[in-house]
Design a protein that fits this description.
By secondary structure, the protein is an all-alpha fold. It has 1 helix and no strands. It has one helix spanning 2-51. The chain is rod-shaped, with a radius of gyration of 22 Å. The termini are far apart.
């Protein structure tokens, strides 16, 4: 009985951690994508200002 409960607890912890890491990864990925987009948008403006 105890072993079964321990396995369940470990599985639940692992599942929660996996979900948390997935959410963290998703938000980090979205932030990275947004940063890249901002950089891509601002690059032409920077080039224009440096050419002048």
């Amino acid at each position: 009985l105890f072993e079964g409960q321990a396995i369940l607890i470990v599985e639940n912890l692992f599942y929660c951690n996996a979900m948390f890491l997935l959410k963290l990864f998703k938000s980090t990925y979205q932030a990275a994508v947004q940063t890249c987009r901002m950089l891509l948008v601002s690059l032409p403006a920077v080039k224009r200002s440096t050419v002048r």
